[in-house]
Structure formats: structure tokens, C-alpha cells
Amino acid sequence: MNLSEEQIQLRDWVHEFANGVMRPAASEWDEREETPWPIIEEAARIGLYSFDFIANSYADKSGLTMAIVNEEMSWGDAGLALAIFGTTLGVAGIFANGTPEQIGEWIPQCFGTVEKPALAAFAVTEPDAGSDVSSLRTNAKYDPSNDTWTLNGTKTWITNGGIADVHVVVASVDSALGSRGQASFIVPKGTEGLSMGQKFKKLGIRASHTAEVVLDNVRIPGSMLLGGKEKLDERLARAREGRRSSTQAAMATFEASRPIVGAQAVGIARAAYEYSLEYAKERRQFQRAIIENQAIAFRLAEMAMKIEASRLLVWRAANMAATGQKFTMGEGSMSKAFAGETAVWVTEQAIQILGGYGYVREYPVERWYRDAKIYTIFEGTSEIQRLIIARAISGLQIK
Ligand SMILES: Cc1cc2nc3c(=O)[nH]c(=O)nc-3n(C[C@H](O)[C@H](O)[C@H](O)COP(=O)(O)OP(=O)(O)OC[C@H]3O[C@@H](n4cnc5c(N)ncnc54)[C@H](O)[C@@H]3O)c2cc1C
Fold it and tell me: Quick check: CB of 200 below 6 Å from ligand 1?
């Protein structure tokens, strides 16, 4: 678990950006609740937001690079980090399902250019299909006469929804088959019938854009179906015959991406811990630093323990995914759920340590508290992670 010289250098480089560019801008973009284009452009300019950077980070055989990068970015600011790296959700969707040609064509377009960065979105969730993704209503109908798909439906809570240059939309092609009857499509910006619904005002990560995506008779060529028609037809035939599906492969992909989300939560928790540790050493009440009281010092000790444990779970799961080890206990889910809940708990403790100063916007701690909460909700709620772990350890279809 020792980082290589290269990883340490990379971590320090990302930290410099997080400390020098993200931290000073965090409060402003939290208040503005707008996409922070100048920060995204700066990340693109230095090569942090680019296809090459993400591809190289993912290529790391230890699996730790993406975790380290994400922790540092979220330490800088979770909202800005998601505004910059939210694109990777769409990228992962293309990478997991696309043909080599589709990957080569569309992933670079998700990032755009240094002069004009672009964004991508991954649209799965719907108003009536959140945790239960098997019940998607957005449908895709194929017309063989002109090799065209027509998509109809509404997606909700979509990061970069409506402002992305590339939307990866998951739709049902055969609703009777549930999640086995779904496919992913590329819908580029400007496609007729694609529009943004309402933009949501959120508790935290407010620099990250979250909105509805409306698909009203969106017509796209057959080449936009990720993986291609032949593969889809084979998959549907297997599902109709009740044969084993690739659902397990899809689940494995999700498990592999969860530690990265966990790493983001670790970044927020560490920010709040470091800040409150320093504060507790400085702040004096009753003629002594407040850290000299066990009630405060033990709280900080507990915060440190939970953050270290979270990072270890995250690194282990990231390493297992990169080295092709099978998750047998829902290790990916464990890392995400534990780190997410740790971030919520640690940031609350940090507010307590700062007292009234923790509660006001002049100090960053209340923002970290608001930002942390999303980590028990998106990318699978804490309950859904427990469901996955419980099923993995018991071998039973726990409901
Ligand atoms: C800021 C933000 C950004 C997001 N970005 C994206 C995105 O880019 N793309 C995308 O597709 N989605 C995105 N989402 C959606 C997110 O993944 C969903 O909100 C999440 O999966 C939960 O779905 P839901 O909100 O419909 O809650 P529900 O599924 O309705 O859950 C409500 C509650 O019931 C619990 N629950 C549900 N089923 C069970 C069960 N079987 N057992 C026990 N408890 C259960 C849940 O854990 C939760 O506590 C985003 C959400 C937010 C808030």
C-alpha cells in the first residue's frame, strides 16, 4: 500500500491545484450554484481535465491513482471536483459498453479541447426509477427501415444533464426483461428533442450542475447504440431464453467504480478533520486550548481512525478491481458506504468542534457538511450498498 514515487508526485501536483485553485474558489461557486467554467478551463489548461490524464490514471496497475486524484480534488472542494470530474460517469458508460470505434470516437468528445472543454453526462435515474433501475420507463424503439432509434422519456438528477456535449442515456428496449432489456445510447448535444428540464437547487455540491433531461422523440442513428445492434440482439435473445446474462459483468463494473466515489468522500472528511484539528489547537476557552479536553481530543482521534479506515477500504477495493480480483463480500460497496457515512459523521463532528464558527458560512466547515451528505445517496444509497454486501456475504436474495 505504499505509493510509488510517481503517485506521490501526481498527488502533490493535484494537491497544488486543489489548494491553489479550488479552495479559494469554493465558496463563490457554492453560492453561485453555477457550472464553474473558469475552473474547468484551468483544469483543462494544466492537463488535469483531459482524456489523456484520465486514461493514464485508469491505466495504473495498482488501481490507486484514480483514488488518490479523487481524494485530493474533493479535499479541494467536492462541488468543484464533481463539476470537473462528473464527465467521467459518462466516460465510464461509454468505456464499459462501447465498441472500440465508439470509444475512440466519443470519449475524446466528452472532454472537448483545451480551448473549449466539453462535459459528459450519464443518465440512468428517472422520477419513478431511482434505486430500482430495472424499472426504467425511458424507451428506445428501433426502425430497421432507416436504421434509427427513437428515444422517449424523462431522466432526473442528472449530473451535467442538458449542458453536456455527450449524454449517455440508458433506456429500455424491452421492458418485459427489466434491466436485461436495457441498452445505452449516445445522444449528442443539439439533437432534436433533447432538452434540459428543471435545474435542481441543492443542499451541497452546488457547483455541480444537476438537472432533468427530457427526451421527446429523439431520433439517433443506429451507430449511437453502444456496443452495436448485433450484440444487443444476442443479449436480448439470451435473456428471453432465460439464460445467464451479463448482468454480473455490469454489477462488477459498478463495484469497481464505487471505491472512486468513496475516495471523494475521504477527501471531504480529511478536509474537515484537518481544519478542526488546527482549530482545536488554536481556540482557547477556560484558559486552555479546547483540544486539551478529552471530549475534543478523543473526537479528533475517532475522526482520524475512521478516515484512515475509509481510505484503506477504498484503496483495497480499488486495488482489487485493478488487479482483477473478485469481490466476494461487496468490497466496492463497503468502501463507498463506509467512506460516505464517515464523511457525514466527520463533518458533523468538525462543526461541533468549531461551535458557532462551524455553523456559519464564513468558515468552510458547514459547506463540507452539506457536501458530504450526497455520499450516502448518489451512486447507490447506503441502504443499497448494504443490500449488495448482505447478498454477497449470505448468498441469499435479501430484499
Ligand atoms: C446531486 C445528485 C446527482 C446525481 N447524479 C446522477 C447522475 O449523474 N446520473 C444518474 O443516473 N443519477 C444521478 N443521481 C441519482 C441518484 O443516483 C439517485 O438519487 C439514487 O440512486 C437514489 O434514487 P432515488 O433518489 O430515487 O431514491 P429512492 O430509490 O426512491 O430511495 C429512497 C429511500 O429508500 C431507500 N430504499 C430504496 N429501495 C430500498 C431497498 N430495496 N431496501 C432498503 N432501502 C431502500 C433508499 O436507500 C433511500 O433511502 C444523482 C442524484 C443526486 C441527488
Answer: no
